[in-house]
Amino acid sequence: MATLKEIQARIRKLAEKADAVIKKQEESQKAIRNIKEMMRAYGISVDDLHRQGRGDSGRGRSIGKESPAARYRDPISGTEWSGRGRPPKWIAEASDRTPFLVEEPSSSGASSRTRATRKKAKKTPPVVEARKIPPKKTPVPRKPDPAPPGRNPSNKPKQDMPRS
């Protein structure tokens, strides 16, 4: 059974932990108040934070995000394909996909190029230091093991002599 001194020591340790938790909660509440004041001062809402965070990170799908716009349309059936994923049968067999392109509506009429004909900026791969690859070692030919006594050294079966 625990002695009185041991119990009092436990109580002190628990009281210290409780004080630390309370202090941390007070600090976080103060930080939240400061953040809310700054958000009011700059006119930022919680929705703005969610939209900004999801859009820049590239991870996950934000709520209300629309599917990608169609880049190709089948002239016969009218079905559309965004250009992502596995191509449908009606365009997979086509060697030239330009007849299936969908024109983008131009707001100012400045450009009539389609989305598919625009060139995307290619990311250049990072420069990696070339490392030296050691030359391949050629295998050294091995000498055949000497045949044990009573065996044919050439490992060929002995041919019987024709009987006369």
Helical content band: 25-40%
Shape: flat
Order of the strands making up the biggest sheet: 1-2
| Total number of beta strands | 2
**Span of the ends, CA to CA:** 108 Å
Rg, rounded, reads: 39 Å
Ranges with pLDDT <50 over ≥5 residues?
106-117
Which structural class fits the helix and strand makeup?
mainly alpha
Strand portion: under 5%
Largest sheet: 2 strands, antiparallel
Provide the succession of SSEs. Answer: HHEEH
Report the mean per-residue pLDDT as an integer: 75
Provide a count of the helices.
3
Family: Belongs to the histone-like protein H-NS family.
Domain DNA-binding protein H-NS-like C-terminal: 70-94
Pfam families: Histone_HNS
InterPro entries: H-NS_C_dom
Main attributes of the structure:
cytoplasm; flat; DNA-binding protein H-NS-like C-terminal domain-containing protein; DNA-binding; two-stranded antiparallel sheet; 164 residues; mainly alpha; H-NS_C_dom
Tell me about this structure.
By secondary structure, the chain is mostly helical. It has 3 helices and 2 strands, in the order H-H-E-E-H. A two-stranded antiparallel ribbon has the order 1-2. Strand 1 (72-73) and strand 2 form a beta hairpin. The model is unreliable at 106-117 (pLDDT under 50). Its main location: cytoplasm. Belongs to the histone-like protein H-NS family.
